[in-house]
Design goal:
Length: 229
């Protein structure tokens, strides 16, 4: 009699890609809830490792205190430690790492070391012009913080806040078309090689992130169900 093969699937390793404003955070939280995955963002990982005083965390701390950038090697060591924790048994959603094709290659090598691999890279795709319009027209009530938009949400009475009656409004200086456009251009330039890397390995899934939150969630959920089956 031969032993039955182990039917427990390997934990999913999902890479979530998308520019600021694409709704990545909201969608990652939904995936956590629906699939028992754990979202690991680079910033949170580093802070947690430093606080926990792990070997890699102490290295990261020294680099950051010296004003340097934490190396890929240290980030990978921290990621490896974190992925060994029991709460990641169903899988992880990586957010903010890898950022470059080189980091993606290093991540593949790390995962291969423990018999794992990237399950899918999901690119939340946006159209630049409407994204820029969304960001560029935003402003808020100076007294209560209620959000408005030049095009999509004006107060019922011009110049008067619907919620508190305030008449002073403010705009963030970086919420303008030029800055928003530059942010998107930087995102595209940085992620194009990464997207090509995963596309070349047949792991890339593109999701139209211009649709409503629920539709996007449904599309993501369909992908995760298919790849982690
Ligand atoms: Zn107000």
């Amino acid at each position: 009699m031969t032993a039955m093969p182990d039917r427990i699937g390997a934990p999913a390793v999902l890479i979530l890609l998308g520019p600021p404003g694409a709704g990545k955070g909201t969608q990652a939280r939904k995936l956590e809830q629906d699939f028992g995955l754990v979202q690991l963002s680079t910033g949170d990982l580093l802070r947690a490792a430093v606080a926990a005083g792990t070997a890699a965390g102490l290295q990261a701390k020294a680099v950051m205190e010296a004003g340097g950038l934490v190396s890929d090697e240290i980030v990978l060591a921290i990621l490896k430690d974190r992925m060994a924790a029991p709460d990641t048994g169903r899988g992880v959603i990586l957010d903010g790492f890898p950022r470059t094709a080189g980091q993606a290659g290093a991540l593949d090598a790390l995962l291969a070391g423990s018999g794992q691999r990237v399950t899918a890279a999901i690119s939340m795709e946006v159209e630049d012009a409407p994204m820029i319009a969304r960001v560029a027209g935003r402003y808020t009530c100076a007294s209560c913080g209620e959000g408005y938009h030049d095009e999509f949400r004006q107060p019922a009475k011009a110049g008067v806040c619907d919620r508190c009656g305030g008449t002073a409004f403010r705009r963030r200086s970086d919420d303008n078309a030029e800055t928003a456009g530059a942010r998107l251009a930087a995102y595209h330039a940085q992620t194009a090689p990464l997207i090509a890397y995963y596309e070349g390995r047949g792991l890339l899934h593109r999701v139209d992130a211009m649709r409503g939150i629920d539709e996007v969630a449904q599309a993501l959920s369909g992908i995760v169900s298919r790849v982690s089956g």
